[in-house]
Amino acid sequence: AFLELSGPSEIRGVWKGPATLPCAYVPVEGFLQETLVWTVVRDQGSGTVFHRDRSSDQALLAEYRGRVSVPKDTPGNVSLHILSLEISDRGTYTCQVTWRASNSSLMTREIAMRVEVIKVPATKPIIRAGGLGLTVPAGARTSLSCVSSGSPPITYRWFRSTPGGPALLVGSQAELAWDSAQPPDSGEYFCEAENR
């Protein structure tokens, strides 16, 4: 179909976890995306979550600022990404796109989807142990990964043991990486995973 939006009618997300509300179209030559507007209707009222025009992106409802984004470099993909779902995010979201044709006429399409936010029982993070011992040549790129499961969000901390001294904090991501490993990087490392 000509400049039709596609996306599901319902999304189920987990409280405190990330969610993507898919909305996409196939770009057509001669039609330029003019605006993208994501709105929400929920128990607390309604409003504009996200607005994009040719000059800027804006999260208009304060409770969504810093938590929502839309891809910029993928023509036709106008999906809304919510970094961390709150229970109050439940509602009906509408994705509306307006295009300007080469003859300056405007065309608008929209789709709506229901978003449910579910709570799952809180579970402690469980780290899956990797292989012990890693040898890499000096100057090589290498990394250690901390893989865990449990209730999101999970934060990570990497420590390096020092003989006879305290463990030193060396990273705060799931992956600890070196662009160019050197002999002084040798040692014992361990990972800690934490959630609420």
Provide keyphrases for this structure:
196 residues, Immunoglobulin-like, 2 domains, three-stranded antiparallel beta sheet, 0% helix, single chain
Number of domains: 2
For the biggest sheet, the summary is: 6 strands, mixed
Alpha plus pi helix count? 0
Low-pLDDT runs of 5+ residues are: none
According to CATH, what is the class of the largest domain?
Mainly Beta
End-to-end separation in angstroms reads 46 Å
What fold name stands as the CATH topology of the largest domain?
Answer: Immunoglobulin-like
GO biological process, one term: negative regulation of interleukin-2 production
Pfam family, one: Ig_3
GO molecular function, one term: complement component C3b binding
Organism: Pterocles burchelli
What would you say about this model in short?
The chain is mainly β and 196 residues long.
